[in-house]
Amino acid sequence: MHVKIHKLFEVLLQTTGAQPEAALGLSMAEPPRLGEFLSGLDPNLGLDWSGQSFQGLPALRQGVIERMGLGGRCSADDVLITAGTAEANFLAITQLLQQGDDIVVDTPGWPQPLVLTEAIGANLRHLTRREERGWAFEMAELEALVSERTRLIFLCNPNNPTGHVLSEAELLEVVRIADRVGAFVLVDEVYAGLEWHGPRAPSIAGLYERGISTGSVSKALGLQGLRAGWLVTPNRTVLMDAVILRENTSEIMNVMGEVIAEIALRPERYAHAIRKARADGLHNLGVLDAFIQARPELSWVRPQAGLVGLVHFDRSISSDELAQRALEAPFRTFVIPGSAYGCPQHVRLGVGGGATARLELGLERFGALLDSLT
Ligand SMILES: Cc1ncc(COP(=O)(O)O)c(C=O)c1O
Asked: Less crowded by CB within 10 Å, the N or C end of the chain?
């Protein structure tokens, strides 16, 4: 299997090291510092593997089940701790999908399944999210795309890059369509926890026997560098297949990531972190929304969840050029071109990162860039 580069990674490769003075591209909450966890760490902790289970620390797996609201539907035995959502997606997709299978993927959405599908030689069926429908897709279109050849449906919910959220009733509709042909449903739930209007997006692992939920502490908790994520499924074959593939890639979890993630998911600490992330996120989204409303050339569907949204711009310049110009002097501001998601008239703007992102400065600079184009 040979994996080719995707546009989004090209952008990240080119911009890492560019040292922007402001960022309008960040998708995660302000990262906590190591010092905030020191009091909970045992200085005698061995830096060998915990040796407790190939699925990861039992206490961490229990924390995952509780924070995801899966108690009573799934158990800690249904969880595999992984190196982030990225590894969890990789393990599930590469073990489930064979050359010639069909996979349905929501678009715009997360590029990882697109890249892996091509490398595997499987057939990609795009499920189109429509801006005029608030970035929802049509269930009838999903129904038409799914056939006996469909092995897997991959959705990103809450969605990156649009912030659209599927309700439980809609997810059950997806389940009905998948179950008709015995397809698996993998939902990347890495943005769960920052829903602005309703409850946490329900986890597919609790709704379907062939449901697979992936997620991590990266976004709502801002702990991306821990590389602590999970794959949750009631399907033991899928879980064991993932354990077997992981044994042949990174073998086991990194012990510091597991230990700190377990602390981060303890009820009080988690509640506090989510309260802060929600307050910061809502405030920043309000600032971004006001900026967009004040500029006639910009429009967006305000995200229902998460810290990123796709913003349409009415200027005769490509999103690649716009993002490139934004990064250069005098603007020095990081934004992600919509072309990375197949949307060349959009930019992905994000309001994560807390104070370090310098949101107001970024918006001022981005506004000045747009002014310079008129
Ligand atoms: C939708 C989506 N899935 C997965 C990832 C990777 O996250 P993690 O750090 O949990 O591997 C990201 C990161 O941006 C993402 O946006």
From this structure: C
Looking at the whole model, is its pTM more than 0.90?
Answer: yes
C-alpha 213 – ligand 1 centre gap (Å) = 13
Ligand 1 within 6 A of 216 CB? Answer: yes
Burial class (CB in 10 A: 0-12, 13-18, 19+), 197: exposed
Q: Two tokens at 176?
A: 């009905």
Atom of ligand 1 nearest to the CA of 87: 11
What is the per-residue pLDDT across 44-81, written as a single tens digit (0 to 9) for each? 999 998 889 999 999 999 999 999 999 999 999 999 99
CA–centroid distance, residue 102 to ligand 1 (Å): 23
Indicate the top mutation candidate among 26, 28, 85, 186 to test ligand 1's pocket, ranked by most ligand atoms within 8 A of CB. Answer: 85
Does the Cβ of 214 fall within 6 Å of ligand 1?
Answer: no
pLDDT confidence bin for 266, thresholds 50/70/90:
very high
Tokens of 98: 């064979």
pLDDT recorded at residue 342: 95
